[in-house]
Amino acid sequence: MPKVFYTQPDGTVVAVAASPGDSVMATAVRNGVSGVVGQCGGSLSCATCHVYVDEAHRDELGTPGEDEDEMLDCTASDREDSSRLSCQLIIGEGDVHVTVPPEQL
Ligand code: FES
Question: How many Å lie between the centroid of ligand 1 and the Cα of residue 53?
Fold first, then answer.
């Protein structure tokens, strides 16, 4: 079973067992991971699921689609090259490492 590792802004890491096909956002919300809100439930209309994806996973998770790219301009914390909306990050068979931004709302 894959795990998602969420690094918090203070450097602590929360590891959560995940199901392939589930999103990084839904996995965080279901497990009470701090800093991932997911206010719109994954319909690409809130940007409160912003995370920074670890460089090692960027290729396997692809690039943002047009709608995600537009919403990434609305994040509370600065957008970086590694920024993604975690509701669009679908977990495969392997582990995923992301960092939660300092501000989400
Ligand atoms: S949960 Fe709202 S954009 Fe991802």
Answer: 16
| 72 Cβ inside 6 Å of ligand 1 | no
Instruction: Give the model confidence (pLDDT) of 11-26 as tens digits.
Output: 999 999 999 999 999 9
Residue 31 neighbours by CB under 8 Å, 6+ apart: 14, 16
pTM of this structure: 0.96
For ligand 1, the distance from its centroid to the CA atom of residue 41, given in whole angstroms, is 6
**Ligand 1: which of 48, 84, 104 to mutate, most ligand atoms within 8 Å of CB?**
48
Q: CA dist 88 to 10, 11, 12, 44, 98, Å?
A: 25, 24, 24, 8, 13
